TrEMBL record:
Organism of derivation: Kribbella ginsengisoli
Residue ranges of coiled coil: none
Highest taxon of the lineage: Bacteria
Official protein name in the record: Ornithine cyclodeaminase family protein
Pfam families given in the database record: OCD_Mu_crystall (PF02423)
InterPro entries according to UniProt: NAD(P)-bd_dom_sf (IPR036291), ODC_Mu_crystall (IPR003462), ODC_N (IPR023401)
Length: 340
């Protein structure tokens, strides 16, 4: 917010204030789908994510994401998010990912808002999984299997349950207490039966929709290629690879959120596949934006095995942050802070 006589003011939105706005899961998924479509149509700009690696013994790092959406706001909207990725945080009662986002007017550089982006980070990940499922999964998918119980897990499962008429949700994670709590929380929210499995291999076997969101410190093949049946939709996006190297060999279509992002950085579930040439321009089917914008078809048969690898686009963070800011302005929620 800019007022020349009164200085420059921006809106600060805390996590509880964002929660009070009551955004629905469908609203978040739709905002992400619109951003993905804009990306496919060339109506966005963003820089490759960069990592800040503190000297902390390897317990965590920071990701810095920057993006701009042309079609939001009067002149578009620009944003930057910084998110920490600290796997051991559960030991001190903290989420593994804590984030902060800032939004800017792209015509003046004036800061518009500072937001707790922890929920945004988790929700946009689930929403991207769900947008991918809208176009790449079988509409009659009945069994969802999910490995991992971190913050993104809730959004993955609940948003996918909104999308499909599921018969069963299977969940697993490495720590028994985390998977049991996750299952209990889901059962309290959803009507779909939730089953807990001790291993990922058991949970994944024969499922229609498979989401691998584990938190490994070292590569380990938890998602076995043999578990992928005809018609399955697979989303592997753990920071460290939990899949076998031949996974892509059985896939009919491999889709990424952005090919440049897929090639960058040292992390990612399919990092070895890129580095060894198994995932390349010749084996990649499309970026998801090209499918959402209608430039390429998504799923074309019930038997296709499809895979979406999304690294996490800054554009999605900007889209949801803008949605939150507009809702907060209408409700007069947040704290106005003098910037200049």
């Amino acid at each position: 917010m800019l007022a020349m006589t009164d200085g420059i003011w921006l809106r600060f939105l805390s996590g509880p204030e964002i929660d009070s706005l009551g955004l629905t899961r469908l609203e978040i998924v739709d905002a992400v789908e619109a951003a993905v479509r804009d990306h496919g149509e060339g109506e966005t700009s963003f820089e490759p994510r960069v990592h800040l690696m503190p000297d902390n013994g390897g317990i965590g790092h920071f990701n810095v994401l920057r993006g701009h959406l042309n079609r939001l706001g009067e002149h578009g909207i620009s944003g930057v998010k910084v998110v920490g990725d600290f796997v051991p945080n559960y030991q001190v009662g903290l989420p593994s990912e804590l984030a902060m986002a800032t939004l800017f007017d792209p015509t003046t550089g004036v800061p518009l808002a500072v937001l707790d982006a922890t929920m945004i980070t988790a929700a946009r990940t689930g929403a991207m999984t769900t947008v991918g499922a809208r176009y790449l999964a079988r509409p009659d998918s009945k069994v969802l299997a999910h490995a991992g119980a971190r913050g993104t897990a809730w959004w993955n499962v609940t948003m996918l349950d909104d999308l499909f008429d599921l018969d069963e949700i299977r969940v697993t994670s490495r720590r028994p207490e985390s998977r049991e709590k996750f299952a209990a929380d889901l059962a309290a929210e959803l009507s779909t039966p939730v089953r807990v499995f001790a291993t990922a291999e058991e949970a994944f076997d024969g499922a229609d929709v498979i989401v691998e969101a584990t938190r490994l410190m070292e590569p380990e093949p938890l998602l076995r290629t043999a578990s992928i049946r005809p018609g399955a939709f697979v989303v592997p996006y753990g920071t460290v690879s939990a899949v076998e190297l031949d996974l892509l060999d059985v896939m009919d279509k491999v889709v990424v959120d952005d090919w440049r992002e897929a090639q960058s950085g040292r992390f990612g579930s399919l990092r070895r596949h890129v580095d060894t040439g198994r995932l390349s321009p010749s084996t990649l089917y499309a970026e998801l934006g090209h499918i959402v914008s209608g430039q390429k078809p998504g799923r074309e048969s019930a038997a296709e095995r499809t895979l979406l690898w999304h690294r996490g686009l800054s554009l999605l963070d900007v889209a949801i942050a803008h949605l939150i800011l507009r809702r907060a302005e209408l409700a007069d929620v947040g704290t106005m802070l003098r910037f200049h």
